[in-house]
Amino acid sequence: MAYYAIEVLVYGTVYIKASTIGKAQRIFNGLISKTIDARHRAWFSDASFEWVPRVSFASSLTLDAALPGASLVEVTERAVELAQRSFALGSRDVVVPFAERAVDLNETPVFTTDVDLTATVFIKANSLEEAGSIAATFGEQYHIELQVGYWHWFSKIGFDPDQDGGLPITLASALKVVRSSRNYPLEQRWPD
Predict the structure, then answer these.
(1) Is the separation of the CB atoms in 11 and 116 below 8 Å?
(2) What span, in angstroms and rounded, lies between the C-alpha atoms of 29 and 180?
(3) Do 18 and 155 meet the contact criterion of CB atoms below 8 Å apart?
(4) How far is it, in rounded angstroms, from Cα 26 to Cα 163?
(5) What's the pTM value of the predicted model, to 2 decimals?
(6) Are strands 55-58 and 44-45 parallel, antiparallel or unpaired?
(7) CA 93 to chain centre
């Protein structure tokens, strides 16, 4: 078996707590072109809206097709492991979740929009052709549910067949926020 990597577009949903839509937009604009470390579980919330952090993403992601010009490349097992570790937090482009007391925010409105992100996807396969077949399914809206086996999605352990049968793919922990999907505006989601 070998490991292959490819850059893909990922769709997600972001939730932002702010007192006004203008403040929410400023927070969102601050995320654009930044990279989040997905191994910080606080980024992906399945809590009710009054308890979500100031900025979080829905606990599910959808993989789309490979980025234009991206192609599958064979990588070493070590390269997979390094890409899946929490990367250096000293980088100016890395955003980590902001720890706050949720009780101070539980009455604050929540605004949301769909976002485009990019990620490196790793595929463990017998050949480049087999990896290509798996990658071809990404354009069919490959859905990732992070509530199930969260750490496995960002770890080489996820490929292990002894871990719930093994995953067909795993992701690097670096997810780059690109833009609002289809230029959707932020909308107040909670309270209605």
Answers:
(1) yes
(2) 9
(3) no
(4) 41
(5) 0.87
(6) parallel
(7) 15
Residues 6+ apart with CB under 8 A from 8: 63, 64, 65, 66, 67, 70, 118, 119, 120, 121, 138
Instruction: Show the low-confidence residues of the chain (pLDDT under 70).
Output: 86-105, 141, 164-165
Say how many C-beta atoms besides its own lie within 10 A of residue 69's C-beta: 6
Name the E strands within the chain. 2-17, 35-37, 44-45, 55-58, 60-66, 73-75, 94-95, 110-125, 142-145, 169-171, 174-180, 187-190
pLDDT per residue over 55-106, tens digit each? 999 989 999 999 999 999 999 999 999 888 865 544 444 555 555 555 566 7
Is-contact 143 87, C-beta < 8 A?
A: no
Residues 144/63, Cβ–Cβ less than 8 Å = yes
